Each structure stands twice: as structure tokens, then as C-alpha cells.
TrEMBL record:
Keywords: Cell membrane, Membrane, Methylation, Transducer, Transmembrane, Transmembrane helix. SUPFAM superfamilies: Aspartate receptor, ligand-binding domain (SSF47170), HAMP domain-like (SSF158472). It is found in: Cell membrane. This is HAMP domain-containing protein. GO terms for cellular component: plasma membrane. InterPro entries: 4HB_MCP_dom_sf, HAMP_dom, Tar_rcpt_lig-bd. Residues 239-278 form the HAMP domain. It comes from Paralcaligenes ureilyticus. The keyword Cell membrane applies.
Length: 278
């Protein structure tokens, strides 16, 4: 039975389909493209998680600054109040003994308290200008502000003025009736705000740890896929390129030795198949 040329072309097309008919250059470009896409994907995932971690670290840094500012306000306010109490005692001793050295100590303590209060007022102004955007943090900030003003206006400032006027009865009355109570309320607001900031920092750190682990998993998956692609490329090129070239070398050796009896079967239509057909 004679096979028509048309049927021969169809059978050749059928054999040329799939990887056996792909050109070596095309396979190389496909493999390089896959590796390039893999590198881009891994790089994109790493950049995304790096950006997320950067945001978490920025949030932690801002919260640290706010917590530090609030704690400084609390420490300076406490320092100022203690300095006022010590200054009052020195003033009373100086009035009783007419000791210039003790009087100077009282003036120094009062000046120290005034400096601390100026630092508190500056920190408070900066704090009000940079209120957090989070609703809970803003609520706690407003509560802190609402406890600061009465503490300063009803407690600290009248005590300073009473010391300047050497009105010790008013000084101790204001301290006992307003200063102590306002101080406790202010400290409670400070503690509530600090506790919230610590909670937010712990949450942000936990998120950063999760994102970091996800980034490691994504990079590990990319490395694994890359290894699988390398193995697949080695197998494919071994079967479609290396093995046919080794067989071609054997055929050429037989032809060079004058052995033309063995038939060469062309299985591919790529560069190796063209080499066999020639």
C-alpha cells in the first residue's frame, strides 16, 4: 500500500507537535522567561512584605515617641510638684531662722519647679498638635488632656503663686484639697494611655512577626519552585537535546566507518531533527 505525500506531511506534523517539535532556542527562551517571572514574583512578594513590615515599624516608632512624651510629662509634673513641696519647707525654715543659704535653696527649688512646668507645658502643646488618628488612642488622649488642665489650673499654678506670695496656708490647702486628687486622676489617665500604647505595640510587633514568617514562606516556596524548574529543564533538555546529540555522534561514527546499513529515525522537528535529516 502506497502512502500519499499528504499523509506523510500529516504524520510529520503529528510528530512535530508537543515538546518534540519545539525549537531549542524557543525552549531556552521559555525556560529563561519562567525563571525571570519567578524572580520577579519572589522579589515582588519580598518587597510587599518589606513594605508591610516598614509600616509596622513606623507605627511602633510613632507609638514609642508618644509614650515617651506622655511619660516625660508625668515625670516632669511629679518633679515640679515635689520641688514645690521642698521649696515650701525651705522657705518656712528660712523665715524662721533667717538663714540666707536655706532661702537660696528655696529659690533654687522654686526655679527648678518652674523649669519643669515650662517643659510640661511645651510637651503638652506638642502633644495636642499631634493627636493619634486611632479612635481609641484619640479618646484616651482627650481624656488625658481633660485631666491635665484641672491639675495645672486648680493645683500646680495656685501652689506656685502661693509660694511666690509666701502664703503657706493657701499652698498646703490647695495641695491637700486639689493637688493630690488632681494628681491621682492625671496619673490614672497617664497609665491608661501608656497601657494602650503598650498593647498596640505588642499587636504591631505580632503582625510584623507574622508578615516576616509569611515572607520567608513565600521565598522558600519560590526557591522550591526554582529547583523544580531546574530539574524539569534538566530532564527535558536531556531527552530532547543531549540524548539526540549523543545518538547523532554514534551515527556519525558509524557513517565515518562506512556503515550505512542502520536507519536513522527522525523523532523531532527541531534543530536536532534537521541535523538528522541532513
Amino acid at each position: 500500500m502506497q502512502i500519499s505525500p499528504k499523509n506523510v506531511k500529516k504524520s510529520r506534523r503529528a510528530r512535530s507537535r508537543g515538546l518534540g517539535g519545539a525549537r531549542i532556542g524557543s525552549m531556552l527562551m521559555s525556560g529563561l522567561t519562567l525563571f525571570m517571572l519567578l524572580i520577579m514574583a519572589v522579589g515582588g512578594v519580598a518587597a510587599y512584605f518589606l513594605y508591610q513590615n516598614g509600616r509596622s515599624l513606623n507605627a511602633i516608632s510613632e507609638q514609642n515617641m508618644q509614650a515617651k512624651q506622655v511619660l516625660l510629662m508625668s515625670n516632669h509634673m511629679l518633679h515640679a510638684r515635689v520641688s514645690l513641696l521642698v521649696a515650701a519647707r525651705y522657705q518656712q525654715e528660712a523665715s524662721a531662722s533667717a538663714d540666707a543659704a536655706v532661702k537660696q535653696k528655696a529659690a533654687d527649688m522654686l526655679g527648678d519647679a518652674t523649669k519643669m512646668l515650662d517643659a510640661v507645658k511645651k510637651s503638652f502643646t506638642d502633644f495636642r498638635k499631634n493627636l493619634p488618628e486611632d479612635s481609641d488612642a484619640r479618646r484616651l488622649s482627650v481624656k488625658l488632656i481633660s485631666t491635665y488642665r484641672p491639675y495645672l489650673d486648680d493645683g500646680i499654678d495656685p501652689m506656685v503663686q502661693a509660694l511666690k506670695d509666701q502664703d503657706y496656708a493657701t499652698f498646703y490647702y490647695v495641695n491637700n484639697q486639689f493637688g493630690i486628687e488632681r494628681s491621682k486622676t492625671f496619673e490614672k489617665a497617664i497609665d491608661a494611655y501608656s497601657a494602650y500604647i503598650e498593647k498596640q505595640q505588642a499587636a504591631a510587633y505580632a503582625v510584623a512577626v507574622v508578615k516576616f514568617r509569611q515572607a520567608l514562606m513565600a521565598i522558600g516556596a519560590g526557591v522550591l519552585i526554582g529547583l523544580l524548574l531546574m530539574i524539569a529543564a534538566r530532564i527535558i533538555f536531556g531527552r530532547l537535546v543531549i540524548k539526540p546529540l549523543v545518538q547523532a555522534g554514534g551515527h556519525f561514527d558509524r557513517i565515518a566507518g562506512g556503515d550505512l546499513t542502520e536507519r536513522i529515525e527522525v523523532k523531532t522537528r527541531n534543530e536536532i531533527g534537521v541535523l538528522y535529516e541532513s
